Amino acid sequence: MNHVEINKFVDLIDEACLLIYNVKPEKYGVILKRVSQEILGNFKDNDLDEATREKLGSIYQKIYETELKDENEVLLAIQLLQAKALKHINYSLDYLVPDFISLLINQFIESKSLSFQDILDVNIGTGMLLLNLIIHLDNKKNNYYGINNDDNLIDILVASSNLINRDINILYEDIDAKLVNIYDMMIGNLSGELLFSKDLPYKVILERLNNLKKNGYFVFLIDNDFFANPNLEEFKEKFNLLGSFLGLISLPKQLVQEEKSRKSILIGKKTINIKQNILIVNIPDFKKETLEKTIIDIKTLISKI
């Protein structure tokens, strides 16, 4: 990773955002979206004076000249910019899914991927989970979708997809809304801190199974107490008529802030009557000797699902 160029890229975009903010104060995400569009050559508003426009032109030229090696470096820069945007509106940084989690989800999705598929992020937020997957799969034939009706998050999401120059189709709906279309695979962050409700993950899973193709997989980030809900049996009765849980990867405590619940990656499939028990891998920490064994265990889990 060329951290010098990454920081330079971030600083230049931040400089452009602050320049516009001083003339026309708005939320950072709104301005970031505008800057991302102008970097792509889409100048829609003529509301800045000539001196400001000239300064912006100079900054954009420097951005074009930055030597980022690949899309992964752009994605790291986007994470830093998203953090700024989220802090500006006092939103949780939990939307910034750690790369380690994205890597595990990407590996599973890649192992089950088709040559062409429609992939839905059921709670896209700022898009980091899906953007990471898009770059990892690098399949321009795929179509990517995300559910989100928070305008603040959508601004940040659109800015991010512009900067990575990839298309994401936004479904402006509640995350448990009824949908019509069918998707090949689903991913999403269903941890409680983002949903502000311990019951909503169960509602989302049941509703979204209606939009997942037969034998399609889903991979969701959940809280570790997901299976300790008092109403779990009622949920399982309904779920078992539609799908099966196949795998659970329990993640290290180091991936979350001290006061928050540990997370797990839940893997399932829209099929019933699977006779094998759910496969579980626990990752207790990031010690080298632990990870070496865990990587083998995860590869085994993926191969058996």
3D architecture notes:
This protein folds into 2 domains: 3-69; 95-304, 3-Layer(aba) Sandwich (Rossmann fold), CATH 3.40.50.150. By secondary structure, it is α/β, with parallel strands linked by helices. Helix 6 (128-137) links the parallel strand 1 and strand 2. The protein is built from 11 helices and 8 strands. Helices cover 47% and strands 16% of the residues. The two termini are 33 Å apart.
Give the mean pLDDT: 92
Number of strands: 8
Estimate the global geometry from the Cα principal axes. globular
Specify the helix fraction band: 40-55%
Q: Give the helices and strands as they follow along the chain.
A: HHHHHEHEHEEHHEHEEEH
The low-pLDDT segments are: none
CATH superfamily of the largest domain: Vaccinia Virus protein VP39
* Through-space gap between termini: 33 Å
- CATH topology name of the largest domain, in short, is Rossmann fold
Number of structural domains: 2
Largest sheet properties: 8 strands, mixed
Q: Which CATH first-tier class of the largest domain would you pick? A: Alpha Beta
Q: Give, in spatial order, the strands making up the sheet with the most strands.
A: 3-2-1-4-5-7-6-8
